[in-house]
Each structure stands twice: as C-alpha cells, then as structure tokens.
Amino acid sequence: MFRVYSNTRVIYGLCRALNNQISKRYQSSSSSTTTTTAAANVALEPNVSKMSMFSGHIKGAITNNLEFIRPENITPISMYQVLDSDGSIKEKSHTPNFTDEDLIKMYKDMTLLNVLDRILYESQRQGRISFYMTNFGEEATHIGSAAALNAKDLVYGQYREAGVLMYRGFKLHEFIDQCFGNARSSCKGVQMPVHYGSTDLSFVTISSTLATQMPQAVALNEMRPVLIEAMTLRVGHHSTSDDSSAYRSIDEVRSRDKRDNPSLRVRKYMYNRGCWNEEKDEQWTKDSQKMVMEAFANCEKTKRAPISTMFENIYDKMEPHLQRQMKEMKEHVRQNHDHFPLSLYEQSST
Length: 350
Prior knowledge:
Region (Disordered): 238-258
Number of helices: 10
Organism: Rotaria sordida
Keywords: Oxidoreductase, Thiamine pyrophosphate, Transit peptide
Cofactor: thiamine diphosphate
GO biological process, one term: branched-chain amino acid catabolic process
C-alpha cells in the first residue's frame, strides 16, 4: 500500500508556518501606526480569500491562526492497494505486467529473507552474533522497490531494507559474514551487524544515524521530487534489543500479520495465476532452509577479523595517535591474554 506526496507540499507547509510566525512577531513588535497594523491583519484574515505563491507554483490560503493539524480532524489520504488478503487483484486494469519468472524471483527473495531473518534472530538469542534486526512484514516494500529500479541505480538504504540487496544478488554468506563481523566480511567487524553495503550492487553502506533513509525516498516525476510512503506493518520487534510488546498489542500484530502478510498474499496470487503451487512451495521451504543453514555454518567457522582492524582503514595512512593506541591495545591483550579468545581471530599483519 502506498501514499504519494509531493515534497514541495511539505516544504510549502513549513514555509507557510514560518511566514505566519514571522508575521505575528513583526506585528506585535512593530511601532507602526494602528492603520498599518490593521491593514496587515486584514491581509492575513483567515476568511479573506487571499492566495500566496511560493517558488512560483504553489498556492495556498493565508491565515494568521497558527494551529496544529490533528489526524482525527482531517480526512486521511487514501492508501493504494493492489492485492487483497485473498491474493486477488482489486482493480483488474492494474494487474502488474510481470512474467512468471519475475514473480517467482520476487517471492523467493521475500521468503528467503524470512528464513535468513529467523535463523539470524535465533542465533543472536543464542549469543552467536551480537545484534540483529528482522524484516518481517516489510519485505514486499524492499523487493518491490528494488524490482522497480535499474540495477545500477544508487540506493541509500536504512537498516531494515536488506531485501533490496537480496533482490540485487547479495549472497547469503555476505549477509551472515557481516553479522559475524568476520575476516571475510566487507566491514571486517568495524560496522554494526545488519549495516550492509555493496559497491558492486550500488548500495551505500547503511548508517544508524537518523534520516539516512530519506534520500532513497526521493525520485524525479515530471522534474519534481516525489515521496512514496509505503504503508506496512513491522511484525518483529524493532531489534534484538527491543521488546515491542511494551508499546503495542502482540495479539493485534499477529492478527494483522495473518490478514495482511505480504508473502502470503503474493503466494495466493501466484496460486491463482497458476505459476506456483503447494508442492513447489513446500520444496522451496526446505531448500531455502537448507541454503541458509549451510551458509551460516560456513560463516561461523570463519575467523573474526584481526583486532587491529579497528584502527585501520580510517585514514589513508594510519595517524601517529592511532599507531600509539594500537600498540597500547596489543600490549594490554598480551598481558591479559587469558581473558581474550584470540584463537577466534585472525592474527594481525601489522
């Protein structure tokens, strides 16, 4: 389901609010004559049919009443939906122009991501990796977005959009290596788990800082920025450090997941279309489980990156203060080697 906004509308709203604030402050502090003030107030009366134009193309009524717009007092923007809960196309003229092969790939990527999530989430609970965030309930927004982009389009993902990488061909071991932070992973353990990145797949490394998910929401439509807001339900907890039952009903989440689960709806649509069936689905379930478990076992055996890695690749050349810190760290580890499982790590070459 999608909501579409124009970014310019948001910017316009901010500009209008700021303009009103400035106007009110100016009026209250001005030493102008009563006539001038009265004239200004007349120009800003909410019932007066005056229009304002920003940037030459946005128009709106001017008012001097600053108010918060509350959701219960406005009509919500309609949400666009293609598939209903039975996997049927709601508007036949909007039937997607996918080949069977395209549809099967998207479904397999969504469900493979589910299997990967389940195994890595459980591995964190067992203490085998340090942190994880699942994608349950949001996988369709990842795969759908990735399928609509060109393969070389640059993506600025956020930390719950692994499906984009899955669709573009990121290997299972690449996901798992990154979460282990082992010597084979691209980040060598100096980045948080689930913060993936791939130069080859035009996917900018994920960051934990706020608002990094905004750039990929902006595209060009008739030479205007457009924001597409995908409305979905995050089924899992925010992360392995979170218990979402503290702020939402688990029963409600489970109920909505059974009704609106994106993978289930796509599967039903494929059944209706005739390109998938229960036998194929059962076999894929077994195959995907085996694929992830084999990749996990292989990644777990791979040694962690050398502990010196945390000081490397920060600058073009290692600065003196980092050299000093690395030397101090190595001396500390040498003196307290009984407390460090060095056999799990590759030895540093520096």
